[in-house]
From TrEMBL:
Residues in Xylulose 5-phosphate/Fructose 6-phosphate phosphoketolase C-terminal domain copies: 615-813
Protein family per UniProt: Belongs to the XFP family.
PROSITE patterns attached to this UniProt entry: PHOSPHOKETOLASE_1, PHOSPHOKETOLASE_2
Listed cofactors: thiamine diphosphate
Family annotation (InterPro entries): THDP-binding (IPR029061), Transketo_C/PFOR_II (IPR009014), Xul5P/Fru6P_PKetolase (IPR005593), Xul5P/Fru6P_PKetolase_C (IPR018969), Xul5P/Fru6P_PKetolase_CS (IPR019790), Xul5P/Fru6P_PKetolase_N (IPR018970), Xul5P/Fru6P_PKetolase_ThDP_BS (IPR019789)
Name this polypeptide is given: Xylulose-5-phosphate/fructose-6-phosphate phosphoketolase
Alphabetical keyword list: Lyase, Thiamine pyrophosphate
Domain Xylulose 5-phosphate/Fructose 6-phosphate phosphoketolase N-terminal: 17-391
Any one GO MF annotation of this record: magnesium ion binding
Organism: Parafannyhessea umbonata
NCBIfam families (UniProt xref): PRK05261.1-4
GO biological process, one term: carbohydrate metabolic process
Amino acid sequence: MAEDLGTPWKKLDAPVPEEEIAWVDKYWRAANYMSVGQIYLRSNPLMRSDFVDEQTGQTRDFGRADVKHRLVGHWGTTPGLNFLMGHVNRFIHDHGQSVVFFMGPGHGGPAGTAQSKLDGTYAEIRPDITDDEAGLQKFFRQFSYPGGIPSHFAPETPGSIHEGGELGYTLSHAYGAVLNNPSLLAFAVVGDGEAETGPLATSWQTNKLVNPLTDGIVLPVLHLNGYKIANPTILARISDEERNEFFRGMGYHPYTFVAGFDDEPAISIHRRFAALLEQVFNEICDIKWRALAGETARPAYPMIVFKTPKGWTCPKYIDGKKTEGSWRAHQVPLASARDTHEHFRVLRGWLRSYKPEELWNRDGSLRPEVTEFMPEGDLRLGANPNANGGLLRHDLRLPDVHDYEIDVASKGHGYGMTEASRVFGQYTADVMRLNFTNFRVFGPDETASNRLQEAYRLTDKQWDAGFNADPENDSYLSSTGSVIEQLSEHQCEGLLEGFLLTGRHGVWSSYESFIHVVDSMVNQHAKWLEATVRHIPWRKPIASLNILLSSHVWRQDHNGFSHQDPGFVDLLLNKNFHNDHVVQIYYPADANMLLCVGQEAYRSTNRINAIFAGKQPAPTFQTIDDAQKELQKGAAAWDWAGNVAKGEEPDIVLACCGDVPTLEMLATSDALQDLGLKVKFVNVVKLLSIQNAGQNDEALSDKEFSELFGTKVPVLFAFHAYAHTIHGLIYERPGHDNFHVHGYMEEGSTTTPFDMLRLNEMDRYALTAHALELVDAKEFADKIAEYRAFRQEAFEFACANGYDHPRFTEWCWRDVVGQDNSAAAMSSTGGDNEE
């Protein structure tokens, strides 16, 4: 559980003091000035008339030369965010409440950096940004500038936890953050453009999946400024009544706050919002206290509709066109401020409207009254450890994987028929048991389908959306569970990300083909990790994002072609540059290897671990100890599966990556050995271990790669996903021209396991025929024809009978104790299994 800060859920006994309301206005003006300055100014940050030009050494007035050549940034959402941050700071100061500010409109990056500069946390990570004129100039210049910082609320900014480079995840991250975090208030600002995205639209429902007793509270604030980049927003154009009914239907109690559309004095606006925030927080405290008193009815959680003009406080008209309250305020309203005196004059007046002389001393230092009512210590928005989750992360207590081992040592390689992901689920349930408030399982209605249901022996699914009178239809549902299911991959990903970013651990599972739903979301998380790993040492490592991908491409007996797509791996490979190592890709061949992979994944930090594993009954080939040795390097020769002595040159190397390809390649090895060929067998569990060594300093060295695969003989490689992925990984490797890769060929249907393999040239008969062609096509011509003919025969058998040919289904590896080898099943004539 995350650490508590301050004294949470404390009401005020009196109205907000007037001096604090006046302070919020100072904050707002300072933050607005700094935000405009970041977008526009490269020098003379306080518009002095006696500024010393750094290039000429001459004294001059504020002029067009002080404006950046290239204007980049987003003003439209920023002043509203500055307003909200000012009020949240006052609120934290008065209540001692731990708050994380989730900025859905990530374009408002200037607001986030201004906030951390004002609360002092920016100086702690950037001592070069000093509290003087030179520091302020550097602060302005770096924004969206070569060698500077990004324009979004990026990981480089203290207090950021949700960059918002891609919209849609504010609420899922916020709700993930408050899970098992009962003292945390997530102040989640949702942009009204963001509110139109699918992920955000469904994340409103998360209030039915949290418990006010054991979890924190999310306060959604819909930032309704009316426009996107070029169009109005839907929620801004419907009536107040319709919008409020929508949110009431979602289970919220909406409060609407409108400001900026008339000449109401700023102090009056601040006074009204401060009172509203207190009213809303009082309601939140009541929810918390009623939960502590034992009330179980789901509350209507408050939310705020914050309706202001887009670009609030900027010039109302520019070049005769409406700007404030228009889509024209979205990015840079004065695009020619350096090039034309008219635009510069407007910019100068805009900056002066914030009265910077009342906020900064002449030397460029902030006046003390500007930070008078800021929170202190870890309660500052920029310092809250929940926004730097590695500060709160503790290593998991993990059970011994040997306790779950399938007995291969005494039973033989290829023993039994085990659902690998079910064994992984048993291990994961015990991980949860040992780390109950620190580990969660998420899934889109498929936790049991993906064989992780062992968790239900320990906990229920967390649910607060009503219960059926017939408990038989509500199995494993309660308001206190630690498994969350919602039929939205975005929600699974977002909730887990929020949980991890605030210092905890977890895993979510998905059908392999539908993980693509969150391609861009995974991409954004990878970018967050990449930025952190490369150059943000003050962000401490967070637990890895673990994804189990089951119901994979090779076993879609019920679902067919629509559920067959192994291409998520290619997105992940795009993230493995600069040796950041923010992704790891696992293809465990069996249950014991999957256990070892799970242990490694749960121990890792700052990574996205994609684990591709089947859920259908399959043999187990390695002991835990052998699997752990292979996992260290990522690939290994399985000497027991080949027949070459050490140092002996094989006729062919058989390689595989993935559980089903491994099984098919073992059957291929069996057949080739029966034909007298010398075979070396190699299994790959970490796909990135074979990547070109020049691109990955954790991959096998070229020497190790050559020792494993050889450089002189053909390599037949069976890969779980698309064949081009392997070729792309090894194009610089010694002997890469010897590789012949079989993979998924975008063929499939609702059919039998063998036929699925046959359609994609992945079945053992196609692999064996290809191997013989590579060794000596002329010598083995008859055998090659025999195998290819049997493929058609086996297909016709399946069509006639509705199940696969016994020669396919009854084969097992040759050294399994108590099981017939059935090697003759590889032949189309003769043998124990011939009918």
